[in-house]
Amino acid sequence: MKIISFNADERKFQNKFLEFPFKLYRNTPQWVPSLNSDIRKVFSKKQHGFYEHGTAIFLLALDNQDKVTGRLAVLENEGYNQHFNSKTAFFYMFECIEDYAVANALFSSGFDWAISRGLGEMIGPKGFSVFDGFGTLIKGFEYRAAFGQIYNPPYYQEFIEKLGFEKKWDTFTGYMDRSFQLPEKIFQVADLVMQKRDFEIVEFSKKNEMKPYVNDLKDLYNASLSYDSRNMPISDADMQTMVKQMLKFADPQLIKFILKEGKPVGFLLAFPDIARALIRCRGELLPFGWFHILRELKITDTVDLNGAGILPEYQRTGGGALLYAEIARSITSKPNYQYAEFLQVRDNNPQMLLEWENMGIEVRKTHRFYGKSL
Length: 374
Prior knowledge:
This protein is α+β, with helices and mostly antiparallel strands. It has two domains: 2-170, 3-Layer(aba) Sandwich (Aminopeptidase), CATH 3.40.630.30; 176-366, Gcn5-related N-acetyltransferase (GNAT) (Aminopeptidase). It is 35% helix and 27% strand. It is built from twelve helices and 13 strands. Strands 1, 2, 3, 4, 5, 6, 7, 8, 9, 10, 11, 12 and 13 form a 13-stranded mixed β-sheet that branches. Helix 6 packs across helix 11 (315-331) and helix 9 runs antiparallel to helix 10.
């Protein structure tokens, strides 16, 4: 076995790196490929905002016949390290066959690279932008991944922990279907909050109508998630990358902003799930991928809730009820929407998890975020 390392601008091994998951998961219907055009951007220092404040190394494991048996990306996010005064490396895009020796060889090379750059900790899986999936799946293997969400075999948990990684935190994905009845009290509180707080809900019918709110979204995202000290503020470059990905398949009717006195104070980001289309087209837009995706956008029965937040000063004054009421209205906005997934809420958000429990939202998937001192 040998390990090959290459940088983002080295093209020779990029296809092997991208193609390996399709071979690994060829008999796994729960795995959903990413959009290949987006994944390829991680190899473009000009197109991906990450490279304005970071660098990455890509690793491939090859057997004696030069067949790929594993891959790994290791990132140094200099913006993150400066913000938190840390020396942290991130791992991402880890995939390997069921052979611990392959995982050990990949991560050993990744550890060496990180140490050579003066880094003293590795955490992950965490990707190049806030819109990338994160965490290792440890529960819910029977369920299909949402678009952009990480799926992996059960043995990854064993391998990662055997490498010396320990749990840092978990995230949970909640599930509800159209028959779910949000307690009437939630709607009553939401209506009362709308009146007393003088809130206004901004809805969209076209994608272009959302563009003026891009800067507001960045500020809202940073402020509404400030409760978590591990959230790094999004940069302008990262937000532009995120918005390009977001608008590509957005249903404008599922994205909403909450205004107070004309100023955005909250947001709801929900998207039609296009997982089935990505499986059919293997993540490729051409030649027929666009056809499958556009068709799926019209008929998909699932909505993915990727983000919802409200400024801290309104979180305990009924703002949460307002968000849930809008989520319920979004799901019932079109007859084809039958299910919704609340993607990856962290375990240090007890308020939301308690709300899930009280409302009967089912937790179906758990992803774990790991850390290891180098």
